[in-house]
Design brief:
Layout (H helix, E strand, L loop, with lengths): L4 E10 L6 E10 L3 E6 L15 H17 L8 H7 L1 E2 L1 E3 L3 E4 L3 H12 L10 H20 L6 E7 L4 E10 L2 E9 L6 H19 L8 E7 L9 H10 L3 E4 L3 H7 L10 H4 L2
Parallel strand pairs: 9-10, 10-11
Antiparallel strand pairs: 1-2, 1-5, 1-6, 2-3, 4-5, 7-8, 8-9
Helix pairs in contact: 5-6
Length: 275
């Protein structure tokens, strides 16, 4: 029976002042098979408890833990104790717990499904997909008509923690202009509206850390919730404005068509150029 005795530890991010935590990984060690590790792919949940968290450092530490687990030799002593001794602030490896383990991979699967938050779906709501596509299409049309051809639309940038979706990017007169478009039209719950706004804010702040975006004009196009669901919409707007240069709201496609010329740099906008 002693040959079945192994250990497991949790890898968590813990807020130093409030003690709030989010689990990010599970380590399982067995003397016959070595050490296995599973980690969360989405680190943005760390920002839910600590907006100032250094996600680059968190990801680097998680990768270091994973590399050490993978390289740990079979038959050697458990590495979990030394990892727990090393990682004690913010990203924390808990002291190992002894457990009888017959199949380490099955144990890892069971613990992960129980202790790690489910990975969020990266499929956007249909309303956001439609809104972003309409916005990018109309903006690109206005720009091309005015001789701005280097317009990229609906692509992902590799952020410090996760890929960040960009709706439109173009350069004009030595400046970069970035638009990110989102729809809240299908969100009636104020808590979900605020959660989405915080996630957008986090991605905007992360985008600002990338060299190509540090001096860009970062703008957000947003379709607000239905009028009956706007009781706490101002709270969400505050987050949308925090890391962006401009937030512009659009009720529908028609409002995008009307406002599109006004979204361009002043020298390109016929409305502003004639004033």
């Amino acid at each position: 029976m002693a040959s079945n005795l192994g250990q497991y530890s949790l890898v968590s991010y813990i807020h130093e002042l409030r003690g709030e935590r989010v689990n990010l990984g599970v380590l399982v060690w067995h003397p016959r098979t070595g050490c296995v590790f599973r980690r969360s792919k989405n680190l943005n949940r760390v920002r839910a408890i600590d907006e100032s968290a250094d996600l680059k450092r968190v990801r680097a530490n998680l990768e270091s833990i994973g590399e050490r687990a993978e390289a740990w030799s079979r038959g050697g002593p458990s590495p979990l104790g030394s990892l727990a001794y090393e990682f004690t602030r913010r990203l924390v490896v808990t002291p190992p717990l002894n457990a009888r383990i017959q199949d380490p991979l099955s144990t890892l699967e069971r613990l992960s499904s129980t202790l790690l938050p489910p990975e969020p779906s990266f499929v956007r709501a249909p309303s956001t997909t439609q809104f972003a596509n309409s916005f990018a299409s109309l903006l690109k049309k206005e720009l091309i008509e005015r001789g701005v051809a280097n317009v990229r639309s609906n692509f992902f940038e590799e952020g410090p923690a996760e890929p960040i979706e960009v709706t439109a990017l173009y350069n004009y007169d030595a400046e970069s202009y970035v638009w990110r478009a989102f729809s809240f039209a299908s969100e009636d719950d104020p808590r979900k509206q605020l959660r989405l706004a915080k996630a957008i804010h986090t991605d905007n702040a992360d985008l600002r850390t990338l060299e190509d975006y540090q001096h860009a004009r970062l703008q957000v196009a947003v379709q607000p919730p239905k009028r009956r669901a706007r009781a706490e919409w101002d709270k969400a707007l505050k987050y949308l404005r925090r890391a962006s240069d401009r937030v512009e709201d659009f009720e529908d496609r028609q409002s995008i068509e009307i406002k599109a010329p006004e979204l361009l740099p002043p020298s390109l906008s016929p409305m502003l150029a004639t004033q």
